[in-house]
Amino acid sequence: MTQPYRLFFALWPDSELRDRLATLAHEARRHCGGRATPPDKLHLTLAFIGEAGAAQAESLTAATRRLCMAPGTWRLDHGGHFRGGGIVWLGGDDGAETLTALHRRLAALAEAAAGLPLPSDRPFRPHVTLRRRAKPPPAAWPGVTLDWHYRRVALVASSQRDGQHRYRTLAVSETASG
Ligand code: 2AM
Fold first, then answer.
1. Which of 5, 7, 8 to mutate to test the pocket of ligand 1 (most atoms within 8 A of CB)?
2. Domain span at residue 155?
3. What is the 21 CA–ligand 1 centroid distance (Å)?
4. What CATH number does residue 105 fall under?
5. pLDDT tens column, 50-74
6. What is the pTM for the complete model shown?
7. Within 13 Å and on the Cβ side, how many CA atoms surround 160?
């Protein structure tokens, strides 16, 4: 295939957390309007890599399978809004430093394994996009706390067809035991 890949590293929630995130995304409609992220697309982007060739995608797939990471927990307890795109998001500070360290590690991996430096146009701000083209949520939203226990990083290829994003997992990392 000659078509370039659009790659990113992400955490994908388990089904229980995904359902809770999907409920929050749905409930935010009343205040925020906009369009909810479909439940199977709810994720945390750890590092957005962007366009890559087939050989680079293959190298990074192999490197991701060899990557061994410690399990961790990220506490989601507050919401916010990015004006560009009208993004309503969920995030949290507890566990965010570990995610930032993981972001740096993945950036280094993309560079070393596939010669793909991260486009440095945005600082890393861990968030889960719940709605797009939406208004800001109220200050007290969401009023609940969710713990995201993660074990593996996924390397994902994103493509667009008929205005819809399609995500395909190319590889997942290993989990360190102990
Ligand atoms: P978003 O959720 O805030 O839209 C796949 O496109 C994922 O990569 C999405 O989660 C999206 O974040 C993120 N993304 C897209 N373009 C990006 C960029 N230029 N920098 C950082 N993240 C990006």
1. 8
2. 5-175
3. 18
4. 3.90.1140.10
5. 999 999 999 999 999 999 999 999 9
6. 0.94
7. 3
